[in-house]
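Q&A log
Question type: sequence-to-structure
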Amino acid sequence: MIAGLDYSMTSPAICLSSPTNFDFKNCTFSFLTTLKKYDVSFENISGRYFEYENEMKRYDTISSHFLDVMLDYNVSTCYIEGYSMGPKGRVFNIAENTGIFKYRAWSFGIDVITVAPTVIKKFATGIVTGK
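Response status: OK
Response body:
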């Protein structure tokens, strides 16, 4: 299995897929949310509510959730969206959060491959076939 991550601060999500059979119906999705109304599960999508008292607890909760999911599905490679060129807001917090995840994934032997945001969107919409 491979994983694709949207490692945002407000609604981080993961998509798990076979590397040879990428199709929405065959994927498993999981996301975290700080809004209780989105703590839901249906078909191949599940959301989990979480709270945090400080930024380090937030970073730990997000990275732990995704590592647990990837280890449960025996993921060896994950793809993560790179930083955008014109970010606004708490860019250092985003970098700290992502850095903690990348280090923890590396310590479990999971390869983390960073992909430019434009490439991911083109692949997902079928504009680029990944070749």
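Response note: Helices lie at 55-72, 91-107, 117-125.
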